[in-house]
Amino acid sequence: MFPFFKQINKSPLLPQVVGSSGKVYTCYASCHFCSCPAFAFSVLRKGDNLVCKHILAIYLSRATGACQEQSISNQHLTALLLPEEK
Fold first, then answer.
1. Helix (H, G, I), strand (E, B) or coil at 1
2. CA distance 13 to 15
3. Distance between CA 5 and CA 44 in Å, rounded?
4. Residues 19-67: pLDDT tens digits?
5. What are phi and psi of 28, to 5 degrees?
6. Cα(18)–Cα(3) distance, rounded to whole angstroms?
7. Consecutive H or E run containing 2
8. SS3 annotation, 10-75
């Protein structure tokens, strides 16, 4: 699991984490939200955890400086925030 942060022009960072399965999850650490199923189940539904491992990875990577920043276009941002359903 390696967090990376996408800088959209000069807008705030959009944190994304590559999970252990290789899937990329978009995390909104500022409001403690992640798009992973574990967050929906363990945090939102059951209330067993405060955050998922992806948000924890973001906090740890920020604290240790072990994150990568990538610049993306507005079109790429739109695709990240509004993915096409399969």
1. coil
2. 6
3. 24
4. 888 888 888 767 788 889 999 999 999 999 998 988 888 888 878 887 7
5. -115, 80
6. 6
7. strand 2-8
8. CCCEEEEEECCCCCEEEEEHHHCEECCHHHHHHHHHCCCCCCCHHHHHHHHHHHHCCCEEEEECHH
Residue 78 corresponds to which amino acid? Answer: T
Cβ neighbours around 23 below 10 Å, total: 11
As a whole number of angstroms, the distance between CA 66 and CA 74 comes to 25
This prediction's pTM: 0.64
Amino acid sitting at position 43? V
Output the CA–CA distances (angstroms, integers) from residue 46 to 38, 41, 42, 75, in the order listed: 10, 6, 5, 35
